[in-house]
Amino acid sequence: MPSKPAKPGRDLDRALDAMPAAYIECRDYGHIWRSRDAYWVAKERVYVQQLECARCATIRVRELNAHGHILSSGYRYADGYQMPAGTGFLTSNARDGIRLRSVTAAMPTRDERKHA
Ligand SMILES: [Zn+2]
């Protein structure tokens, strides 16, 4: 008999309750990167490029060498995007919980269905 997936924990539910819908969408679908700016740092011989998510405003900063190879990449998350300390690495069940939030948020409410 296949095992039924466990429900995401209460800590995750609480974190998701407090999270704006846009953040849940980014966690489910991935960020929507748009170029923000880029510049050449001659002393270090690196390009620094900043990308910004059009949905949640997270910033991605990456450094490339002169040939375009990525030397480093990091994120500056929008306030409230990251899970609270102690929530830990997102498990498969936690990702299921995020997808459930995302799909149910996209569904019409009972009132919207009535008036459609
Ligand atoms: Zn985003």
Architecture overview:
The protein has helices at 10-17, 21-29, 92-106, 110-114; strands spanning 33-41, 46-53, 59-64, 70-76. With 116 residues, the chain is an alpha+beta fold. A 4-stranded antiparallel β-sheet has the order 1-2-3-4, with no helix packed on it. A hairpin with a 4-residue loop joins strand 1 and strand 2. Zinc ion (ZN) binds at residues 26, 31, 53, 55-56, 58.
Topology at a glance:
Blueprint: H1 10-17, H2 21-29, E1 33-41, E2 46-53, E3 59-64, E4 70-76, H3 92-106, H4 110-114
Antiparallel strand pairs: 1-2, 2-3, 3-4
Helix pairs in contact: 2-3
Bound molecules: zinc ion (ZN).
Zinc ion (ZN) binds at residues 26, 31, 53, 55-56, 58.
Morphology call: elongated
Order of adjacent strands in the largest pleated sheet:
1-2-3-4
Give the DSSP E fraction (strand runs of 2 or more residues): 25-35%
Cα distance spanning the termini: 41 Å
Output mean pLDDT.
86
Class based on secondary structure composition and strand pairing: alpha+beta
Helix proportion: 25-40%
Which sheet architecture does the biggest sheet show?
Answer: 4 strands, antiparallel
Counting DSSP H or I runs of 4 or more residues, the number of helices is 4
Pick out the low-confidence regions: 3-7
Radius of gyration: 19 Å
List the secondary-structure elements in sequence, H or E.
HHEEEEHH
